[in-house]
Design the sequence.
């Protein structure tokens, strides 16, 4: 073969080779026709299945049946990068469009049943090379047909990743998963896998076939039994196991996890595991990340066992009950990246747990423990990777120093710095100077440290990515003045409780256009609010309370802040109108303590679960704004006290939980049509209401506080009051109630404070009052807003995430209205005191003073051992002071004055160690007053005045001496020494009564024996009557004549 033929041969061969490559390349540029058709069938199924069934244009718009459309270029589809035509990944997560998915997740069961949809798993069979399938966030309720689940995917032998998070497959899916033997990652987050433990064990017993599985996530599934962990333990290949956010209790067996020798990540946070779970964990020597957060773990950490975990890189022990010292070996764990021991009871010196050699640390949180001593932040000078430092403390025993040694230069650039209530730089009280060189901060919180100096505006200037700035409760002074530029990242600013002053910048709204939360309360800011505050269109919470602002509320604030949920302008000097009509999203509005004169009640808000409106302590007058109630159908709290409203209360208050109309000008009777099924607190004090308590009020079974003081209510207390079983405070003083005190009040066992004073009650004090708790039953602090808790959960938007664990960084976790706690006024210790919060929880009292009660004081009152104040003064009570009163160990005020009590004052009362006020004045008590010991040494003469027969200190009258050698009470030697007023009261009353009867019988007998005397007596009386009559008639006639002449 000559050279030319050979060249021709090779040329033809090369040409054919290029042609083959071209054909193959052209072929590989498109996906397989079988898979393309499969995807189109899948889309058709999804369109008719996913609620609301009408999203064909929205759902997967790039999946179209066109000849030139390559399915490898379709959204949510990934093909093999080498061959180019096999589909290897389908990301079909979150297909349900908002707001339908939100409704689906959070609605009632009926919604799930109405919009339930099932997945046809067979539609995935065409994708033979599929490696990853993500169907999360779709609200799927199961598979069709019912007898076939994900076992149909067994034909996909390359499937390695299956993500089904946040659906509703239920436990029935578990058996079918055992056939997917190629799986390496399986995630079933929030799929309602709860079922009877026996059935769950059967459902997972085949999981041992998942021999390649490395990652298993079963979090948020309400799992509550650990027996099925035996099936999981059979998966020896597991490296990452997540059981967080379930309902596990107790522990799991020590052998349940012993086969998981390859386990590197274990997350059992947010369960109810107890200490007995720990021994099985200490044997997992390969662990790199361990989260035990938010369980019921307590006691000390065992040093020897804990220190076996030498490979730990991330450790989260937060939100437990651990105590004692941390294992010293933590100082030697140089691979630690993440360390969170917050919210426990650890003690000791932080310096002994954190060393200069732990330079891998990125996240440190030692908050809310009982650490003490001095800690210098310069220890972290060489920790170049450090991003998060959190030392939030409540005991104020830890001191953190940042200025020693002077001029130390850190290598780190922090993202988060939170050091609150930790005596920061206690001596100098200055803001840390190393912050001058920090330029990447996103969150900084230095609250409750008594820091002084000018407000550090430079913190905002130096950190252009700053999102949250919290400097509350310090002593910063000066003006809030920033450079004329936009700080677009910052969303949270709190400088409340400082000494800031001056006016706000006119362009403050343009400087911080993206603020979500702004709190300037409890400062000395003044002047009008700048209109630019309306440019903060993303504002959700604004608190300017307790300042010196004045003027009218800018209309731009009301009209532009469409997201504003919380607005607190209380206790300033604002005036004009309250512009409710434009606050369309506001749920919490506090305008109290200003000078507003009118209200425009046109609120059409529909975005919030409940509402809070406080317009008390203003100058508003007029009738009850009925339109307010009509347009706010979910208004839960309405506070209108201390204004000049008048008229009557409307009937339809069905959503009201708290209603405060006290100190207004309301008149008339309470309407019998009142509908208050959710009422918890009712304040009507200081108005002009009349009539009786309407029976419809007793249908408010949730009522906790009923204050009707200082009105003109009349009638008796209905026996139906027994229906108010949860009532804690009953205040009816200063009215015209009559009748006996009903025994049905004794059925209200939860009452802590009862005031029935200044009425016309008569009869005896019910003996059953000892059945009422008066503080014996521990009660939590009750709030105006009890349903729904805090008004908003506003967080600084920063999340720390590294190789294994993820942690949300929070500051000031919630926003609570400044006066959301129930406030009660109760007269004790001679003055009216206000109680709220913890003080109200601890207070208890009974006031029956200023009535017409008769009879003796029931001995049973001495059984109310926890009562603090008892006032029975200004009645007609008789008998003796019960000796059982010595059992009232917590009594601070006892007033029995202005009654007809007799006998001696029990000497055992000196055992009342907390007694501050004692008054028995103006009774008929006799004998020696208690010795001036303990608390009785503080009581003066005024406590005993008006009792002629009392003697002994502090009174001037000394008691008569008794001869101890002669036991007889009457002796001739003492007879001459007795004073004329020292008479036995019983003898005196008996002799007086006998003398009166004898005199009456004598006069009647004389008239009977001598009738003439009786007739003369009648004539004399008749003459006297006529003489008086004519005298009055003649005098009045003369007086009228004189007036006419004038």
Sequence:
């Amino acid at each position: 073969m000559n050279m030319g033929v050979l060249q021709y041969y090779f040329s033809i061969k090369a040409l054919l080779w290029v042609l083959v490559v071209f054909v193959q390349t052209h072929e590989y540029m498109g996906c397989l026709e079988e898979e393309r058709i499969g995807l189109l069938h899948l889309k058709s199924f999804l369109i008719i299945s996913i609620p609301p069934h009408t999203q064909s244009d929205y759902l997967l718009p790039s999946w179209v049946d066109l000849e030139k459309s390559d399915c490898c270029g379709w959204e949510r589809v990934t093909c093999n990068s080498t061959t180019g035509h096999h589909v290897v990944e389908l990301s079909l997560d979150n297909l349900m469009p908002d707001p339908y998915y939100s409704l689906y997740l959070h609605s009632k069961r009926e919604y799930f049943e109405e919009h339930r949809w099932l997945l046809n798993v067979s539609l995935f069979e065409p994708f033979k090379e599929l490696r990853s399938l993500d169907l999360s966030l779709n609200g799927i309720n199961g598979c069709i047909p019912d007898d076939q689940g994900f076992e149909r995917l067994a034909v996909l032998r390359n499937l390695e990743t299956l993500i089904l998070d946040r659906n509703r497959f239920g436990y029935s899916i578990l058996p079918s998963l055992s056939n997917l033997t190629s799986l390496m990652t399986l995630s079933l987050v929030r799929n309602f896998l709860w079922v009877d433990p026996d059935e769950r064990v059967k459902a997972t017993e085949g999981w041992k076939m998942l021999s390649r599985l490395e990652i298993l996530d079963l979090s948020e599934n309400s799992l509550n039994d650990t027996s099925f962990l035996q099936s999981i333990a059979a998966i020896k290949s597991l490296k990452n196991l997540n059981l967080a956010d379930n309902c596990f209790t107790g522990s799991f067996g020590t052998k349940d996890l012993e086969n998981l020798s390859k386990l590197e990540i274990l997350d059992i946070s947010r369960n109810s595991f107890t200490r007995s779970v720990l021994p099985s964990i200490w044997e997992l020597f390969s662990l790199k990340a361990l989260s035990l957060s938010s369980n019921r773990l307590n006691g000390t950490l065992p040093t020897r066992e804990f220190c076996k975990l030498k490979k730990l890189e991330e450790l989260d022990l937060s939100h437990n009950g651990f105590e004692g010292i941390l294992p010293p070996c933590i100082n030697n764990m140089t691979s630690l990246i993440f360390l969170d021991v917050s919210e426990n009871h650890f003690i000791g010196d932080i310096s002994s747990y954190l060393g200069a050699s732990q330079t891998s640390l990125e996240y440190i949180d030692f908050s809310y423990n009982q650490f003490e001593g001095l800690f210098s932040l310069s220890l972290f000078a060489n920790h170049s990777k450090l991003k998060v430092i959190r030392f939030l403390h409540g005991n104020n025993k830890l001191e953190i120093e940042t200025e020693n040694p002077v001029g130390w230069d850190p290598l780190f650039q922090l993202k988060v710095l939170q050091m609150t209530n930790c005596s920061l730089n206690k001596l100098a009280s200055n803001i840390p100077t190393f912050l001058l060189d920090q330029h990447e901060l996103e969150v900084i919180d230095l609250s409750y440290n008594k820091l002084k100096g000018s407000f550090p505006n430079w913190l905002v200037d130096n950190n252009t990515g700053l999102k949250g700035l919290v400097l509350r409760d310090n002593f910063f002074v000066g003006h809030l003045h920033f450079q004329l530029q936009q700080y677009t990242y910052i969303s949270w600013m709190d400088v409340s409780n400082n000494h800031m002053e001056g006016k706000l910048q006119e362009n403050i709204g343009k400087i911080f256009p993206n603020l979500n939360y702004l709190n300037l309360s409890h400062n000395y800011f003044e002047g009008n609010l700048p209109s630019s505050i309306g440019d903060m269109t993303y504002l959700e919470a604004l608190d300017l309370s307790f300042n010196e602002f004045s003027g009218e509320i800018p209309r731009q604030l009301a009209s532009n802040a469409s997201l504003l949920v919380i607005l607190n302008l209380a206790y300033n000097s604002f005036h004009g109108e309250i512009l409710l009509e434009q606050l369309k999203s506001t749920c919490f509005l506090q305008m109290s303590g200003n000078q507003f004169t009118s209200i425009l009640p046109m609120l059409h808000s529909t975005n919030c679960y409940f509402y809070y409106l406080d317009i008390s302590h203003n100058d508003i007058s007029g009738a009850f704004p009925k339109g307010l109630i009509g347009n706010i159908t979910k208004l839960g709290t309405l506070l209108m006290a201390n204004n000049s409203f008048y008229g009557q209360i409307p009937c339809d208050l069905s959503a009201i939980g708290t209603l405060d109309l006290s100190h207004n000008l309301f008149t008339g009777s309470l309407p019998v049509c009142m509908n208050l099924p959710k009422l918890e607190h009712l304040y009507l004090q200081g108005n002009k209401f009349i009539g009786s308590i309407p029976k419809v009020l007793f249908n408010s079974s949730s009522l906790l506080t009923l204050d009707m003081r200082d009105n003109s209510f009349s009638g008796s207390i209905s026996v139906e009051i027994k229906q108010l079983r949860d009532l804690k405070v009953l205040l009816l003083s200063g009215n015209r109630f009559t009748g006996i005190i009903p025994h049905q009040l004794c059925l209200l066992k939860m009452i802590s404070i009862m005031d029935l004073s200044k009425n016309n009650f008569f009869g005896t004090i019910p003996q059953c009052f000892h059945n009422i708790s008066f503080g014996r039953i521990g009660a939590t602090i009750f709030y105006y807003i009890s349903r729904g808790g805090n008004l908003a959960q506003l967080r600084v938007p920063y999340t720390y995430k590294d190789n294994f664990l993820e942690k949300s960084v929070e500051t000031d976790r919630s926003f609570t209205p400044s006066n959301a706690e129930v406030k009660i006024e109760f007269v004790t210790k001679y003055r009216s005191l206000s109680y709220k919060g913890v003080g109200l929880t601890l207070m208890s009292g009974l006031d029956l003073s200023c009535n017409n009660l008769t009879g003796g004081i029931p001995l049973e009152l001495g059984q109310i051992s926890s009562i603090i104040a008892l006032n029975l003064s200004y009645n007609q009570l008789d008998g003796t002071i019960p000796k059982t009163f010595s059992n009232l160990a917590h009594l601070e005020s006892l007033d029995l004055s202005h009654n007809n009590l007799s006998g001696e004052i029990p000497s055992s009362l000196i055992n009342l160690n907390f007694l501050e006020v004692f008054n028995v004045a103006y009774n008929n008590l006799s004998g020696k007053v208690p010795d001036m010991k303990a608390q009785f040494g503080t009581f003066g003469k005024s406590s005993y005045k008006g009792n002629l027969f009392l003697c002994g200190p502090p009174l001037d009258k000394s008691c008569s001496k008794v001869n101890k050698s002669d036991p007889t009470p009457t002796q001739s030697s003492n007879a001459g020494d007795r004073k004329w007023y020292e008479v036995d009261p019983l003898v005196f009353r008996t002799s007086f009564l006998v003398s009166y009867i004898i005199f009456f019988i004598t006069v009647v007998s004389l008239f009977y024996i001598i009738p003439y005397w009786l007739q003369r007596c009648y004539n004399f009386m008749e003459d006297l009557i006529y003489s008086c009559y004519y005298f009055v008639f003649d005098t009045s006639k003369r007086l009228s004549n004189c007036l006419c002449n004038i």
About this structure: Residues 288-440 form a domain with the Leucine-rich repeat, LRR (right-handed beta-alpha superhelix) fold (CATH 3.80.10.10). The chain is about 15% helix and 20% strand. The first strand starts at residue 77 and ends at 79.
